[in-house]
C-alpha cells in the first residue's frame, strides 16, 4: 500500500475532519479530489491518502510539527503546498521587523526529510494568487513576494530532487474564461473550481513523473 501525505495550510486543510471518520478525513480541497480519483482508479491497491494541512500555517509552522505530522506517518510520498500565509503575514506587517523565514525554513524542512526518509518522494506545489479581494490593494507587492516564493520553491524542488507542480500559469489561464474571483474568491483561497485546477495540475504532472502513484 502506498501512503500519500498532503501538507500545507488552509488551502490543503479544506476543513478536513479531525476524527477517524473516513467520510471527512481529506476535507474538501484538492487533496480530496486527487484522493477520490486515484483511490477509485487504484482500488485494487488501496492507496492511503492522508491530509495534515492546517489553516493559517506558514512553512515554519510545518517544520514545528513535522515529526508528528510527517515523519511519524512514514509516507511514501509527501505533497507540500505552502507560502501564502508567509506572504500574508509579511504584507500585513505582522510580525513587524522579523526576517522572512520562508526560504530558509523550507530548506531545513526538506533537508531533515531527506536525512530521515531518503526514499520518500517529494512533491512541491507552486504558491499562487490572483488579483482580487485581499491581494488587490497591494497587488504589485503581492506579485513580487509570491513571485520570490515561487522561484524559491522551484529551486528547492531542483535541489532536493522533488517533483515541481506549477500552478500560477494555470490560474492565469483560467482567468481568460472567468473572472479571478470565480477561481480564487479572495485572491488567496480557491473556490471548488479553483481546487479542481490544482488537482488537475497535480495529476497531470505527478502521474507523468518518477513519482507516479500506481
End-to-end Cα distance, whole Å, is 10 Å
Radius of gyration over alpha carbons? Answer: 16 Å
The overall pLDDT average reads 95
The helix count comes to 10
Percent strand equals 5-15%
Compile the SSE list and pairings.
Layout: E1 3-8, H1 10-13, H2 30-41, E2 48-51, H3 59-64, H4 66-69, E3 77-81, H5 84-91, H6 102-116, E4 121-125, H7 139-159, E5 163-165, H8 168-174, H9 180-183, H10 192-206
Parallel strand pairs: 1-2, 1-3, 3-4, 4-5
Helix pairs in contact: 2-10, 5-7, 6-7
What's this, in brief?
The protein has 214 residues and is α/β, with parallel strands linked by helices.
Plain-language structure description:
The chain has 214 residues and is of the alpha/beta class. It is built from 10 helices and 5 strands. Strands 2-1-3-4-5 form a 5-stranded parallel beta sheet, sandwiched between helices. Helix 7 (139-159) links the parallel strand 4 (121-125) and strand 5. Helix 2 (30-41) packs across helix 10 (192-206) and helix 6 runs parallel beside helix 7. It is globular, with a radius of gyration of 16 Å. The relative contact order is 0.15. The model has no long low-confidence stretch (mean pLDDT 95).
Quickly list its features.
214 residues, 11% strand, globular
